[in-house]
Design brief:
71 residues, 1 helix
Length: 71
């Protein structure tokens, strides 16, 4: 049978490792959540700006809405 002290040390090392991994996973999860919130906000902002640009282009008279003379 193996040494009980060595077994206890191995268990302690494994518990410390699991605790560290749990902390790392939680930190990564928080980072990913924050990034998704930022991506969502930026996506909404781009969509809003795209809508505003399309409205402005539709209302703007001038060369942008006219066919070029070579048509």
């Amino acid at each position: 049978m193996s040494d009980p002290n060595a077994l206890g040390e191995r268990i302690d090392a494994l518990e410390a490792r699991v605790a560290y991994q749990d902390d790392t996973i939680e930190s990564l999860n928080q980072t990913i959540t924050a990034q998704w919130k930022q991506i969502d906000a930026l996506s909404r902002q781009v969509a809003t700006l795209n809508d505003r640009l399309q409205e402005a282009e539709a209302r703007a008279p001038g060369p942008a809405n006219e066919r070029p003379p070579h048509y």
